[in-house]
Amino acid sequence: MTTYLIKGAKPYGGEAADILIKDGRIAALGDSLEATGAEVVEAAGLIALPGLVDLHTHLREPGREDAETVETGSRAAALGGFTAVHAMANTDPVADTAGVVEQVWRLGQEAGLVDVVPVGAVTVGLKGERLAELGAMADSAARVRVFSDDGHCVADPALMRRALEYVKAFDGVVAQHAEEPRLTVGAQMHEGERSAKLGLTGWPAAAEEAIIARDVLLAEHVGARLHVCHVSTAGSVEILRWAKSRGVQVTAEVTPHHLLLTDACAESYDPVFKVNPPLRTDADVEALRAGLADGTIDAVGTDHAPHAVEDKESEWAQARPGMLGLEQALAVVIETMVEPGRLDWAGVADRMSVRPAAIGRLDGHGRPLAAGEPANLVLVDPAVRAAVDPAALASRSRNSPYAGRELPGRIVATFLRGTPTVLDGKATR
Ligand SMILES: NC(=O)N[C@@H](CC(=O)O)C(=O)O
Ligand SMILES: [Zn+2]
Ligand SMILES: [Zn+2]
User: Fold this and answer.
1) Residues spanned by CATH 3.20.20.140 within the chain?
2) Cα(165)–Cα(69) distance, rounded to whole angstroms?
3) Which residue in 298, 303, 311, 350 is the catalytic one?
4) Which pLDDT score, from 0 to 100, does residue 246 have?
5) Burial group, residue 297, by CB count within 10 angstroms (0-12, 13-18, 19+)
6) Which of 15, 45, 324, 399 has the fewest CB atoms within 10 Å, i.e. the most exposed one?
7) How far is it, in rounded angstroms, from Cα 166 to Cα 227?
8) Whose CA is nearest to atom 2 of ligand 1?
9) Can you give the residue ranges of the Dihydroorotase catalytic domain (predicted)?
10) Rounded mean pLDDT of 316-322?
């Protein structure tokens, strides 16, 4: 294995230091390190952070390899500074058996760009009728700890309760896509003044908040871990704050797009802005930023949702919901949280690496930048601003909501257990 000497990077944005990477680990971190034979990475001005961890990625394999594969999504992740991603279960076939999660896990290891951690479905076929083989997925080579029917809500409260009880046995967590389906029939965008004006069926905030309120009560009652996917409303943040103050074991994530964009984007009728849950109001965006800053929201989860051109470039009502996120996630967090002074770099490391790794119970990720730790890390240049060019993305899909938008932060290098997956801003494989 090549030894790397990173010169003059700023760990967590602090004092510049050298980082020596050897045999997959951080061998030393300090001033003026030297190592004969090491490959030198000049990193003056760059911020060093632990490798990012995503709790919410759609890789589309098996089933929609035309939109994304484990390999192309892994490359997008590495280029975004990630060293681990949780692959959502809404594939075809659904990841609801040990066989499918082991296949996804193995494909991730073969691609070798990030650790692909499969999420297991909560119910068979995501149908919300009976529990999938949660224990077999947990015991499989994929060691599944996060279970989600994402794309669908586990709407039946009795089934949700049983899932929460079941995953306690192996320290798992149920990640809920909080959407009361009876309140979102035909929904196209956030329900409010703009949906009325545009004549599009609304997706009310209450459809999300009602499920979160119900689920935190269930999690409290059975003493289990609940995670809330893509929180999008101010009311949801309030409910989470209340639940945490009661000691409920609940965690939550916010997507980069919900931190930056609003329902005003729908006025273009460009389906690239159609997503579940929908883009909300300025007041919601503000509450989400505040919730992420004070830790009520634990993590940023990308909800990277690649879609093929024919599923996205159609009329708004026909288009699939979802947008890309992996390659611009850190950029959006810098723009919305770091530059306005709401989160420092240690805070970014906490919300994008430490806490998501802890929620997923991942070994070797979300670890501090310190001697002896696994060398999972990212180097980012916060000074570079560039316009996003969808054609230049590594994802197989092109549905980026940031096309043409200037964003800060260039990912210069990513290391996975001491091996660079990105160097000079380019994927190494
Ligand atoms: N976010 C989305 O709009 N779409 C996701 C599903 C989901 O996250 O609910 C997808 O799989 O495309
Ligand atoms: Zn979802
Ligand atoms: Zn999703």
Assistant:
1) 51-359
2) 33
3) 303
4) 98
5) buried
6) 15
7) 15
8) 322
9) 47-234
10) 98
* CATH number of this structure's domain 51-359: 3.20.20.140
Q: Please write the tens of the pLDDT for every residue from 220-238.
A: 999 999 999 999 999 999 9
Number of residues in the chain: 429
Distance 322 CA to ligand 1 centre (A): 5
Buried b (16+ CB within 10 A) or exposed e, 173-205: bbbbbbbbeebbeebbbbbbebbeeeebebbbb
- The mean per-residue pLDDT over the stretch 258-287 comes to 98
> Is it true that domain 4-47+373-427 has CATH number 1.10.101.10?
no
pLDDT (average), residues 402-410? 98
Q: What is the mean pLDDT of residues 80-94?
A: 99
5 with 13: CB under 8 angstroms? no
Whether 350 sits among the annotated catalytic residues: the reply is: no
* Every domain range in the chain assigned CATH 2.30.40.10: 4-47+373-427
Mutate to test the pocket of ligand 1, among 126, 190, 276, 323 (most ligand atoms within 8 A of CB): 276
Distance CA 370, CA 25 (A): 9
pLDDT value of position 411: 98
Q: Whole-number mean pLDDT of the chain? A: 98
Write down the pLDDT at residue 357. Answer: 99
